[in-house]
Amino acid sequence: MGWATVLIDGNNFYASCEAALDPSLIGRPLVVLSNNDGCIVARSAEARALGIPMGKPYFQVRRELECLGVVVRSSNYALYADMSQRLMLTLEPWVEELEVYSIDEAFGRLHRPAAGDLSAWGRALRQQVRRHLGLPVAVGIAPSKVLAKLANKLAKGDPAHGGVFDLGALADPDPWLEAVAIEDVWGIGRKLSRWCRLRGVANALQLRELASGELRARAGVVGLRLQQELRGHSCLPLVAAPPAKQETCVSRSFSEPIRELGQLREAIATYISRAAEKLRRQRQRAGTITVFVRSSPFNGTRFYANAATATLPLASNDTAVLLAAALPLAERLLRPHNPLQKAGVLLQNLQPLEQLQPHLLAPLPPEQQRRREVLMATLDGLNRRFGRGTVQWAACGLQPAWAMKRQRLSRAATTRLSDIPVVHSD
User: Fold this and answer.
1) How far apart are CA 86 and CA 122, in angstroms?
2) Structure-derived torsion over alpha carbons of residues 324, 327, 328, 333, reported in degrees to the nearest 10
3) Superfamily of segment(s) 248-396
4) Cα distance between residue 154 and residue 174, in whole Å
5) What is the pLDDT of residues 92-117, one digit of tens each?
6) Comparing C-alpha atoms, which of 252, 360, 362 is closest to residue 318?
7) How far is 372 from 39, CA to CA, in rounded Å?
8) What are phi and psi of 175, to 5 degrees?
């Protein structure tokens, strides 16, 4: 009995989240749009079958989608983040260790039973996730992370597998590795895949059998580690606790170009407010704030991009402190003859919450610090309970014209009380 590595991946995650809260979408072609309803960033299986391309600008395919009866939704980030958190909480009891890899993916480790096959375990896991959350997932099982990625791809690729594929239970996995193109191997980028193709290495099996010295000369230790993973040796440990962030960024494109100072200050205030919430959730403070802006390269005027930085005398995650430092930077960045299309804030020099270096010229009495921390925690708690924006800073504005356009937004039924579906019974 040894260890097995599993990769659980949500199928068409954004589209599946929409269908989980709106059963009328099940079985219908559905696409989800990017910020400001710009491009297609997610498709249901039915939309894929219609040949709708990923990344296509919505305005170019709008009439085609209407003719095909495709449902269109704006990105509902609050819903997707909450469903992701629920998914990871559902997965935790099923594995010995869990690494949240992305919003819709998680690696896990568990003991392989004496019988050797974990397919029944994977099917039971899929059923529970579907029953509890209404989300379809694929489960790839193998001795290592890279092989688990391949197994997950194979689980999705053939309906006969039922969404589960245990590569580690096969007596001879070589035919399956041979069926995976070199470009589909996790960790193989465009340049390395081209290098492999030029040497006749076209699939995962051939990469596994490639001379190690030749691979090391091209890709170093990283390439050797990947090859060892393909050979079934686990070289990439699970990261149960993600490392502390070095920077925190919030940026958005505007639905309408910004030309006025007041609008830019509102945008900066909005992004600072969001970034401060992230800092408090990460249990960190920031010592430096950078605000950056840019115009559109397609509006016929000269492209403009600029940034300004402010250093705090005392690192903080207090929204009021960060606003006081960031808002004066707006005047240095605005150019009325260069309408701005995007802005963002970058918080740097992050420090752990437990570490606060006092400053002789910026005294902060402990009682005042405690009261501000309680205030921030109260604001965050209200927004978590009743939905983001329930309590917000006046500097952010009420209904700014530049705010992200989401004309086809579904309800935030899992994070906002007012959006909870109401069921009537006789």
Assistant:
1) 18
2) 160
3) DNA polymerase, Y-family, little finger domain (3.30.1490.100)
4) 13
5) 999 999 999 999 999 999 999 877 88
6) 362
7) 41
8) -60, -35
Predicted confidence (pLDDT) at residue 68 exceeds the cutoff of 70: yes
Give the model's pLDDT for residue 425: 73
Contact 292, 347 (CB under 8 A): no
What does pTM read for this prediction? 0.82
Map out the domains of the chain as residue ranges. 248-396
d(CA 237, CA 216): 21
Give the model's pLDDT for residue 421. Answer: 74
pLDDT band at 360 (very low <50, low <70, confident <90, very high): low
- Beta strand 137-142 pairing with 164-166: parallel
Residue 362: pLDDT above 70? no
Tell me the CA distances in angstroms from 62 to 31, 38, 49, 71, 409, one per residue in order.
11, 11, 17, 11, 16
The answer to whether the CB of 344 falls within 8 A of the CB of 248 is: no
| 223 vs 408, higher pLDDT | 223
CA distance 80 to 82: 5
d(CA 260, CA 263): 5
